[in-house]
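Running low. Got one?
___
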Amino acid sequence: MAFYRKLDEMEKDHHMKTHLLAVFPDNPKIVTAVLGAQQLHVDYIAPVPLSSLKVTGTPTLIAVNSEGQVTASWVGQLPGAGEDSVIKLVSTGRN
């Protein structure tokens, strides 16, 4: 969860050109408890069937542009280089 806390901090400190939105298949009460326990302060939508977003594994990060088009996605726990590519995208707006 350290990586997600880093993204959360980046958004809070206005170091992002994007907005974080978490989507969960779970009941909102469960989501609130999980986010609180993990010290994450992100906006979320729940419950959403992940299959409706064509998400087949978790965690999944999806970058969507202002027209609603997917510009990049990452599935699973990311290695350092994968985390770096996400940070580059959210901080510069470019892949």
In short: The mean pLDDT is 93. The helical segments are 2-12, 28-37, 80-92. Residues 2-92 form a domain with the Glutaredoxin fold (CATH 3.40.30.10). The chain has three helices and four strands.
